[in-house]
Amino acid sequence: MSPAPQQQNIDATGKPQRLSAATETLHNTIAHPGNVYINVQGAYIADDDQPKTPLSIHSDDYESGGRDIRLPNHTDVVSHIAVDIGGSLAKVVYFSRDPTSQELGGRLNFLKFETDRIEECIEFMRELKLHYQTINGSKPADLTVMATGGGAFKYYDRIRQALEVEVLREDEMECLIIGLDFFITEIPCEVFTYSPEDPMQFVEARPDIYPYLLVNIGSGVSMVKVSGPRQYERIGGTSLGGGTLWGLLSLLTGARNFEDMLRLADKGDNTSVDMLVGDIYGTDYGKIGLKSTTIASSFGKVYKRKREAEREAEDHGNLLGHHHHSAPAVSVDDEAAAAAADNEHAARSFKPEDVSKSLLYAVSNNIGQIAYLHAEKHNLKRIYFGGSFIGGHRQTMNTLAYAIKFWSKGEKQAYFLRHEGYLGAVGAFLKRQPRNWGRRNSVEGVGAVRPVFGGAVPAGRVSNGGGVGERVVG
């Protein structure tokens, strides 16, 4: 695969002057941002600690997006960075190489910022531009930002003014598909299935990955049918997504960010909030395949317990009333204030942890069932779940996987990714690659990682993309 034709330099005699290979690559990369052919041969998820960013930005401003992806055979200059700016999060993907290190090639780095703090994200990209200039010896304007998501339009002028570089806006849906295809076909130990008995079952790349359904869960949810490379159709979605969960939990629990909400959910017991099949029937409803632990009504116990508390308060008030011959008139405002106080008291009677878990299940179950219905309608057996809503969270993945398995009677499979929140950003980063450029066929023997939730530990050398203790699905 050869690069695009290069512009020739002319020497003092008027004859073409041949550039060095490095200079030629640099000129081509700058002239055609995003067109550098990323060499993915031997790519793997890094098993070392997240390297410190060379920039001065405070770590409180961003969150690492998990392990970097090592590209040991890519040595060319990369003159662009990618950003996917959604309604809740802004995700940044960039290539880095330390010229003072003995490490071969480079790596893809993943960071995310809250969109409400977009200025910190822009400042990070500005400092990254200066760092690229120092490392590559290029001009400040040589860097290009490949932007996608709604924020690529909303913050377009702000990014251009702050960085003084070209900003290329890429189609959001197409970037999602390009990013997912890259992870499915090029990165070993990236895609996996989930079950409580076998939490991470890695999936080998298949030659026939199409068709499939992508369920991208961000602030809202989009469901995209993918029939081939860059052949896609948005077939549905729902407004009840990550933004719904974050918004309601911020009101109900006082949690300040999504990570706090997930930590609360981990400790919660939804059975104190949700009405289960067992609460109604006293046992399983085996005739229709419902276990006693199946949720019959999300938040179904809240109203009942609230009414019980109100009756107790009324009984207490009636008891006190016997000691008073008359009561003062109650205004509408007083009634509203009393109702608000009752609601506040009822909210306090439920633990934030239990409320968090109940709402997480409610949103996840809804998404899982809608995903199944779309997959069934379009005869799609493979369903990939992406988006920052998942975040490697066990309960979320278990709920989605169980919903697909339950409704399809085991005929459809849910798949998850270790970099699920970066599909759009990676797609924007790779958007201008030639089709079918990948070189996945040499990952054997490359150091990989045994992923665990909340981190990763080295698994030594691996063969065929698998690690010690993991099973690889063909």
Query: Which structural class is indicated by helix and strand composition?
Result: alpha+beta
What's the number of extended β-strand segments?
A: 22
Average predicted local confidence, pLDDT: 79
Largest sheet: 8 strands, mixed
CATH topology heading of the domain at 33-192 and 423-431: Nucleotidyltransferase, domain 5
Give the terminus-to-terminus CA distance.
29 Å
What portion of residues belong to β-strands?
15-25%
Highest CATH level, the class of the domain at 33-192 and 423-431: Alpha Beta
Low-confidence stretches: 1-23, 25-30, 441-474
The number of helical segments is: 13
Task: Give me the Rg, rounded.
Answer: 27 Å
Which architecture of the domain at 33-192 and 423-431 per CATH?
A: 2-Layer Sandwich
Shape descriptor: globular
Could you give me the name of the CATH homologous superfamily of the domain at 33-192 and 423-431?
A: ATPase, nucleotide binding domain
